[in-house]
Design goal:
single chain; five-stranded mixed beta sheet; alpha/beta; Nucleotidyltransferase, domain 5; 3 domains
């Protein structure tokens, strides 16, 4: 795709201005041009670049640019129409090369297009993939799910903060308030109707209050209200301990708004996860939901960031793409602490990290791996805690080492979560270990 007897057209994509440079394999600039057009109107500029390359004796031309926003799809389309090879430059590589060039942060479109072409000549590039509509839809759903999780978490934190000021007693009515649909329904009912005084609702009695909560819990996706939580919240209606009374009305209004936002975000999140499970079925990968400890939504979230696993050569490629490959820290006689590289897709790393937490408990293969990795550190911590005359520092150090080892074990389990089709039985557990996959899709 980058022959030695061909030229490279480097393009720095922007919204309304595109910088173009035609360079040879000695990185000598043959021609450059800046056009003020949208990316989908770059066809004439590409024809100009090919003509300039031919004038200098280069019959073959390769286009190189960064995958900037959605504009790269237009460049891919224009290159495909002209049968011109196209390669991508990782933006991180451009950033590093920009600093190596003259140790400054000088950045302009005219300079970056030459830099992009130089990186392509040096083969610091990769071949773009052809986007599949089903995989693109799955990635969109994964991004939407991530945004909804962030919105729901933020709303929950604000609700807890408002109630700790306006009505602290209700925060002790349930062990995990934001996970209890009964608690959320009851608090939403109170904050919408009480004005500045929750005690006003105490006159209706416990039975009527419970009936209202039972009617409201369906809006949160629940089926029935839990009586003890309703009784605890009803008892807290008259509690004023720690409440900032002069700000209650405004805080209750804000809390009611946040509860509405949280309810809407969770409903949309359930819908997005159902759509993701449906997208797995369309791709023939619904069997991933049968892996013990891994839900269909968790598998879909991983694949939304990963893309089609068949395009990776090995599982180590996936681990590197997620930024979870080991990164050593040693020089001479110095041996520092190793860590993961964190060079890859942060969204993929986060999706795998979230999905792997329940697996040491519910997946037999992951449970065995986790136990092998943590057994020695846990045993050392137990010995230090049970040793007579042990210094407090020794006990604390052993406990800290065991906690660090458990964190590393989870990272190792996350890196071992192999969804490639070449090894279909790796984490399916004993129930599926004796069965061979019937098709590549089923194996994946």
């Amino acid at each position: 795709m980058l022959p030695r007897d061909g030229a490279v057209v480097g393009i720095d994509l922007a919204e309304d201005k595109q910088a173009i440079a035609v360079v040879g394999h000695d990185v000598r600039v043959l021609a450059r041009k800046t056009v003020r057009v949208k990316a989908f109107r770059l066809g004439e500029a590409l024809d100009w670049a090919r003509a300039k390359a031919r004038e200098k004796g280069f019959e073959k031309v390769t286009v190189a640019c960064e995958p900037t926003g959605p504009r790269w799809l237009q460049v891919q389309r224009l290159c495909a129409e002209r049968a011109v090879p196209l390669v991508w430059i990782q933006p991180l590589m451009s950033r590093i090369a920009r600093g190596q060039q003259d140790d400054t942060r000088h950045k302009t479109g005219e300079a970056d297009c030459v830099l992009i072409a130089r990186l392509a000549v040096e083969l610091h590039c990769y071949i773009p993939e052809e986007l599949d509509e089903a995989w693109s839809h799955l990635r969109h759903l994964g991004r939407r799910r991530e945004q909804l999780i962030t919105l729901a978490t933020a709303s929950g934190q604000r609700i807890a903060g408002f109630l700790l000021v306006a009505w602290p007693a209700v925060t002790e009515a349930c062990a995990q308030p934001l996970k209890s649909l009964t608690w959320l329904s009851a608090v939403q009912l109170v904050t919408c109707q009480c004005g500045a005084d929750p005690a006003r609702l105490a006159a209706m009695g416990l039975e009527e209050f419970t009936a209202l909560v039972r009617d409201a819990v369906g809006g949160w996706g629940g089926k029935r209200a839990w009586g003890p939580v309703c009784a605890a919240i009803f008892a807290a209606l008259t509690g004023t301990e720690g409440a900032v009374t002069w700000s209650r009305r405004g805080l209750f209004r804000r809390c009611a708004d946040e509860l509405g936002d949280l309810q809407h975000a969770r409903a949309e999140l359930r819908k997005a996860e159902a759509d993701m499970a449906g997208a797995l079925g369309e791709l023939g990968l619904s069997r991933l939901g049968d892996i013990p400890g891994l839900t269909a939504a968790g598998a879909a979230a991983i694949l939304a960031e990963l893309g089609d696993p068949r395009r990776y050569d090995s599982s180590s490629s996936v681990v590197k793409h997620a930024g979870m490959s080991p990164s050593g820290n040693a020089s001479g006689t110095f041996y520092g602490q190793a860590h993961i590289s964190r060079r890859g897709r942060p969204g993929l790393r986060l999706a795998v990290w979230r999905a792997v937490w329940p697996m040491p408990r519910f997946n037999p293969v992951m449970a065995g791996k986790y136990q092998r990795l943590t057994a020695d550190a846990d045993a050392a911590a137990e010995r230090a805690a049970g040793r007579d005359g042990a210094a407090p520092g020794q006990v604390t150090g052993a406990a800290a080492a065991a906690a660090a080892r458990r964190a590393k074990a989870r990272v190792a389990c996350a890196a071992a979560l192999d969804l490639l089709p070449r090894r279909p039985r790796r984490i399916l557990g004993p129930a599926a270990s004796g069965r061979t996959a019937d098709s590549p899709a089923e194996a994946a």
